[in-house]
């Protein structure tokens, strides 16, 4: 399969400066068990406050998730995920009618309901492999769709971090997921790739992927990278406190700016926005 560049932005919505510089996706986890901020934003009003904080700090896209995908997390049903998600999504959409909202889900029922309630993008950590019906939802909606590289699920991913050539296998598996999506009617102009740092990957795997970002960005699909507070940064920095990993996250984001990654998905929007603003002056 030959990848195609995004040339038709009419099927957006896309941020105003899409593909001109590295943009910021702000994370809002409406979960009790996410790895670094679980339980903080379960209440719709608190999620709304976090959305406002992210936007004021410079976020270009908000990414709302109501099911934890950290290693070891237990899956929840469509109904439970929607019960968490929809009140917050409605509140944020009502308060910020023009902001781009991505919903982090791998369930077709959640994706369909979220799009009806005003979500703009779907961010699928499984890339369509957990619930293939999500691809039909994306095709019908003609919305942007993040295909992330992963293997297995939250319970099994760590056992599947076995590669002979991590970059080659990641690239080929992303191509397979993308080809499947296109066969289901998803346009290549809707697709964003995410290499899935930390998903079925150990520290060295993540570092190899980051060293090869320039190659990945040649895929012609926009690239989203989510390094925020992750374990591999803690391993490198010898920092067990997730909330003290911002310096490592910032270093990864500088690499993303250098290699022209389209978006970074982060918790600490303000500091990362400033990091990108400075880095943009160094890599024009």
Compile the SSE list and pairings.
Blueprint: E1 23-29, H1 44-57, E2 61-65, H2 78-95, E3 100-104, H3 108-116, E4 121-124, H4 133-141, E5 145-148, H5 166-183, E6 191-194, H6 203-211, H7 213-217, E7 224-225, H8 231-237, H9 246-258, E8 263-266, H10 269-282
Helix pairs in contact: 1-2, 1-10, 2-3, 3-4, 6-8, 9-10
What does this entry show, briefly?
The protein is an alpha/beta fold. The chain is 41% helix and 12% strand.
Biggest β-sheet: strands ordered side by side in the sheet:
6-5-4-3-2-1-8-7
Gyration radius, to the nearest Å?
17 Å
**What characteristic shape results from the CA principal axes?**
globular
Mean pLDDT: 91
Give the C-level CATH assignment.
Alpha Beta
- How many structurally independent domains? 1
CATH superfamily: Dihydropteroate synthase-like
Q: Helices and strands, in N-to-C order?
A: EHEHEHEHEHEHHEHHEH
In whole angstroms, the N-to-C terminal distance is: 32 Å
Would you tell me the structural class of the helices and strands? Answer: alpha/beta
Please indicate the percent range of residues in DSSP E strands (runs of 2 or more). 5-15%
CATH topology-level name = TIM Barrel
Number of strands: 8
**Helix fraction by DSSP (H/I, runs of at least 4):** 40-55%
Low-confidence stretches: 1-7
CATH architecture: Alpha-Beta Barrel
Main beta sheet strand tally, sense and closure: 8 strands, parallel
Number of helical elements: 10
Task: Write up this protein.
With 284 residues, the chain is an alpha/beta fold. It has helices at residues 44-57, 78-95, 108-116, 133-141, 166-183, 203-211, 213-217, 231-237, 246-258, 269-282, and strands at residues 23-29, 61-65, 100-104, 121-124, 145-148, 191-194, 224-225, 263-266. An 8-stranded parallel sheet has the order 6-5-4-3-2-1-8-7, covered by helices on one side. Helix 4 (133-141) links the parallel strand 4 (121-124) and strand 5 (145-148). The protein is globular, with a radius of gyration of 17 Å. The two termini are 32 Å apart. The relative contact order is 0.14. Mean pLDDT is 91; it is low at 1-7.
